[in-house]
Amino acid sequence: MDKKHYLESVSKLNKFAHYYYVLDDPLTTDEVYDKLYHEVLQYEETHPLEVAENSPTQRVGGSPLEKFTKASHPSRMWSLEDIFNADELKKWLEKTQKLVDDISFYCEPKFDGASLNLIYDGGVLVQAITRGDGVVGEDVTQNSKTIQSVPLKIAHLEKIEIRGEVVIFKDEFEKINQERMKAGEALFANPRNAAAGSLRQLDSKITAKRNLVFLPYGIGTNTLEEPLLHKRMELVYSWGFRTPPRRKTTAGFEAIEAIYEQMKSERESYDMMLDGMVIKVDQVEAQEEMGYTVKVPRWAVAYKFPAVEKITTLKDIILQVGRSGAVTPVAVVEKVDLDGAMVERASLHNFDEIDRKDVRIGDKVIILRSGDVIPKIVKVLVHERDGSQKPYIRPTTCPVCDSELLDEGALTKCQNLACSARVVNAIIYFASKPCLNIDGLGEKIVETLYNEGLIKSVTDLFSLELDQLLALEGFKEKKSQKLLDAIAKSRGVECWRFINALGIEHIGEVASKTLCENFGLEFDSVSKETLIGIDGFGEEMANSLLEFVRVNAEHIQTLKNILQPVAPEVKEEVVENPFKSKTIVLTGTMSESRGNIKKLLESLGAKVSGSVSKKTDYLICGEDAGSKYDKAQSLGVETLTEAEMREMLS
Ligand code: IVH
């Protein structure tokens, strides 16, 4: 690679990253990106003086800091006044219109994260400072460079401050907390804390891993001449920043109220948490005329959404026993309104989390709803204790069947296979949508049938009779017949639903489909080696499946006989050859297109994959094989030239 090619590659990578992280519209695959990135990195290693300021390699983070240094904002970062209802909005608009007439307003979401000031000079990001007290914050330049949606270079040479909010998307927040739970670490209370905590990491390599997102909302010191705020923001977005999920320039109470209602109703569907809508005077000159109070601008206001976070009292902790025997604590709280839903129950994750948070019955707690349905207890207000709170004692016996519990720290299990809670939940799961999808067989009815002694396991469902149902309270002829018909209809169920319905640990919907595609109804007689050879199948999954089919062979056969599940056509048998069932990766330039060679190998029963891993059987190399060859070497994967491949076939 020469210098010209290097610089071209850097801008190509930046374009890919821009489409991926800013526009949410990937232009290429990870593989292509990684290959080019690797080439750029190699060039930089041999030409350290030529490393471009905006090279994506500059985003990986540097050596950890001892502490953050303080830094002053070139101009002050302001806060916002909050309003909560239409009356307050009306008043605010009247006041504003009195100060300046003929104004319009720029409306955009209020993002719930940590604010950050980015200073660009000469088109280059020179410093990034947290809000702090608005005058002085902390220098987090190193960390901010790891945020992919923070441009390292912009097409504007004069000095400018771009202000915005650093957030963590809701799904990323869930993922981080899942990982922290597995590692036995304290969980983040909400996406805002996760974002703020990640931004203020002394080790920027940790920040780099957190997938933070920067959303610009304003401009500090600048030399722009454009008189309208929304036009200025369009300019900012055009320099490579993310746009908000909704923005509108409008005027008048009704129009503003309408866009507020719209944003509020869409709020759940956004990737990030919002806590309101910000309304700003669009005319910059008018903003300057109106000025500031001690803390907030007079030309902007935050119209808050109803809270998804509330303080309530923990009344009790009850226990739930799942179909796998997992016993989980559930908080019973004083009823509160969380953004329109009356909430009485909240998740507490597990017993370790109760200990870690030192949750006590009677505590004041903060509960949060973040996109998903079940709210969680995220914080205990320890300073509100008055001595009447009672520590929680972990259960040692199952609340349903009284047998001894197995305590594995994060996971507590009832080991009694006949525990009625386990059995009932297994039947409910068996009948649920992603499984047999039996219409009308929900929680209540399963419980009734079980409690009346009509079913003891899933197989009993298929010998239920009309008379038995009619004898139950509330079961009229029509309802009973409908239920029996729905159960009968599950005969001939799709194979993957059948596998999923078995409720095998670690084997969910996706794995069930994979099993079904590969082995059809023979999924229960596959060797461990073959299972692990499948893309997406790990050791844990394979072990779980093998153990399940070993213990439940008879049960599976009985169910197969009753349900007669239907498998898709099993792939045609291919003749024996050295590549059958092998995982192969192609690289380099070959005598014909790689697509053709891929087709050839697939027709021989091989699986052709895009990247080299431990599971790759052969890497087949054409000319100029690149990083894949190195990877195959380092993993000890066998490599073949194209000629060698052809020889093996002849
Ligand atoms: S404007 C001069 N716009 O909310 C105006 N702030 O409660 C100053 N925030 O410190 C702020 N989204 O961190 C503005 N669209 C948005 C915002 C936003 C989130 C944060 C920001 C600010 C805080 C004030």
Question: What does this 3D model show about the protein?
Answer:
The protein has 650 residues and is α+β, with helices and mostly antiparallel strands. The protein folds into five domains: 3-58, Helix hairpin bin (Helix Hairpins), CATH 1.10.287.610; 70-304, D-amino Acid Aminotransferase, Chain A, domain 1 (2-Layer Sandwich), CATH 3.30.470.30; 309-414, Nucleic acid-binding proteins (OB fold (Dihydrolipoamide Acetyltransferase, E2P), Beta Barrel); 420-563, DNA polymerase, domain 1; 583-649, 3-Layer(aba) Sandwich (Rossmann fold), CATH 3.40.50.10190. Helices cover 36% and strands 20% of the residues. The strands form seven sheets. Strands 2-11-10-3-9 form a five-stranded mixed sheet.
C-alpha-based Rg, rounded? 30 Å
Q: Biggest sheet, open or closed, and with what strands and sense? A: 5 strands, mixed
Output the CATH class name of the largest domain: Alpha Beta
- Spans of 5+ residues with little confidence (pLDDT < 50)? none
Distance between the termini: 38 Å
How many structural units, i.e. domains?
Answer: 5
**Count of helical segments?**
23
| Strand line-up of the largest beta sheet | 2-11-10-3-9
CATH-derived architecture of the largest domain: 2-Layer Sandwich
Quick check: average pLDDT? 92
Secondary structure: number of strands? 24
**What would the principal axes of the Cα set say about the shape?**
globular
Instruction: Provide the helix percentage.
Output: 25-40%
Bound molecules: 2-(butylsulfanyl)adenosine
Query: DSSP strand (E) fraction?
Result: 15-25%
Category by helix and strand content:
alpha+beta
CATH superfamily heading of the largest domain? DNA ligase/mRNA capping enzyme
Q: What would the CATH topology of the largest domain be?
A: D-amino Acid Aminotransferase, Chain A, domain 1
